[in-house]
């Protein structure tokens, strides 16, 4: 009798596993856009024949702007304040600082999806608008598929848990627990995907690229150009002379410290010899 109950439990468990794997595939999938011509209507769908309305659709929207500005740092500050004022935040920022006019920045703002158009209009005012792009991806079918799989797995888990009370042997309990663990793991993965999809639908990223104005060629006066070049050449020459002087000065000091006593001694010896010779010549002149 126990063997019969174990086989019956095993067969029931296999049937539940098969139902859980194939249950999602038998659900009707609603097309994201209505197709023309005759087609069979889904039997279990409660949506209108032409698909869900625009308000009921799940759409992932993204925007991007390229703005030309002379002060990228000031524009980046305005964008941060704009995101915070509209319930958003800066999810990514890459600011290359320079001398102010050469700064370049790429800032990604995350804002509520219903504020996307308004925030893009305001962000374009921080400078001169160069490009504006807006994309929308309909994920209604994906969201419906994930939701259906989550419901199916939850129902399947409840059925497996009900079998735990009917398990007669340790082997049956081990098989039921293994199946329950597998389904709970799959449910957690689906819930994570469901949460990620919901976040993508509810929030919209805006990538703003700030570029500096193109360099302008300003006509120059030939005299001013020559004066500027001459002044630069003079500065370079003085720099070279100072460099050479700085390199020679230590050696000159050492040579002077060694050579000056020798020169001084030689001069002193020459003076003494001249005085002695002069003294010898004077007596001879007197005698004569």
Automatic annotation (TrEMBL):
The chain crosses the membrane at residues 238-263. The keyword Transmembrane applies. The keyword Chaperone does not apply. Residues 57-262 form the DUF4349 domain. Keywords: Membrane, Signal, Transmembrane, Transmembrane helix. Pfam families: DUF4349. This is DUF4349 domain-containing protein.
């Amino acid at each position: 009798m126990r063997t019969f109950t174990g086989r019956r439990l095993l067969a029931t468990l296999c049937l539940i596993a098969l139902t859980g794997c194939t249950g999602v595939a038998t659900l009707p999938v609603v097309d994201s856009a209505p197709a023309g011509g005759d087609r069979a209507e889904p039997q279990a769908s409660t949506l209108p024949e032409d698909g869900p309305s625009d308000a009921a659709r799940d759409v992932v929207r993204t925007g991007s702007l390229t703005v030309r500005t002379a002060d990228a740092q000031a524009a980046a500050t305005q964008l941060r304040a704009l995101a915070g004022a509209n319930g958003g935040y800066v999810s990514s920022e890459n600011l290359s600082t320079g001398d102010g006019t050469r700064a370049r920045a790429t800032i990604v703002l995350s804002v509520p999806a219903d504020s996307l158009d308004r925030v893009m209009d305001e962000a374009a005012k921080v400078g001169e608008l160069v490009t504006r792009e807006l994309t929308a991806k309909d994920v209604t079918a994906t969201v419906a598929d994930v939701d259906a799989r989550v419901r199916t797995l939850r129902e399947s888990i409840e059925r497996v848990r009900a079998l735990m009370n009917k398990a007669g042997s340790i082997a049956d309990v081990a098989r039921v627990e293994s199946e329950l663990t597998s389904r709970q793991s799959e449910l957690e993965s689906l819930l994570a995907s469901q949460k990620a999809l919901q976040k993508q639908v509810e929030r919209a990223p805006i990538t703003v690229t700030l570029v500096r104005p193109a360099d302008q060629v300003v006509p120059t006066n030939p005299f001013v150009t020559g004066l500027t070049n001459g002044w630069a050449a003079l500065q370079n020459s003085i720099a070279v002379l100072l460099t050479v002087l700085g390199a020679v000065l230590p050696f000159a000091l050492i040579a002077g410290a060694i050579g000056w006593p020798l020169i001084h001694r030689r001069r002193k010896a020459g003076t003494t010899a001249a005085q002695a010779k002069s003294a010898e010549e004077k007596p001879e002149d007197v005698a004569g």
